[in-house]
Amino acid sequence: MKTIILAGGLGTRLSEETVVRPKPMVEIGGKPILWHIMKIYSAHGINEFIICLGFKGYMIKEYFANYFLHTSDVTFDIAENRMSVHRKHADPWSVTLVDTGDATATGGRLRRVQSYLGEGPFCFTYGDGLSDVNIKRLVAFHKEQGTLATVTAVQPPGRFGALDVKRNRITAFKEKPQGEGGWVNGGYFVLSPRVIDYIEGDEAVWEREPLERLASGGQLSAYRHTGFWQPMDTLRDRNLLEELWASAKAPWKIW
Fold this sequence. Notes:
Distance between the termini: 19 Å
Order of helices and strands: EHEEHEHHEEEHEEHEEEEEHEEH
Low-confidence stretches: none
Strand content: 25-35%
Number of helices: 8
Number of strands: 16
């Protein structure tokens, strides 16, 4: 099975980091968040990836071109122009990097990689969100539903503390309760290649007309995930993920 990852956006709300690199290359624990996402899928046996590039996509190409060096110890003999590799390690991944354009919308990027999809269902997600979602169960759920698309529905923490008020008295206080805002799109889709028919061109935003049409036609299922899910939209989000990783208790680290 293949996983398509969107990695071409500008990441303007994380401009402190993305002014110099693509958002999926922002590091958590010294590794790009893109690497963390791929490790999640790989832990569930999915090792074939198609990455949709856009803004500064050459940096992602260079990362994978030198991936072996990133994950191994090396000695450089400068005088002899020779390199020795020690403690060799590499993940069992096949990575296809596709330039889908700097200004292409999310749906358009998916449409541009159509020729790489094959005939069976595939996974599809964003390059900036981490979760402990069980990918195997997600895929099995999708097949049971028989729809063209399945989205992982999540309940993110509320942004503010919640108050229960009765007759001018606060009877309960919950600091940023889980699920305050209801179910939202958490990414981590499973899709049939037929969803490409719902995408008209480069300007198509996946989260608008394609998903709206799939939903209105009864072709969009929701896999409810109540575990960990955290996007990296802002510097605060990035710092939170970094703290979780440093604590050695990162919920998404299932490998």
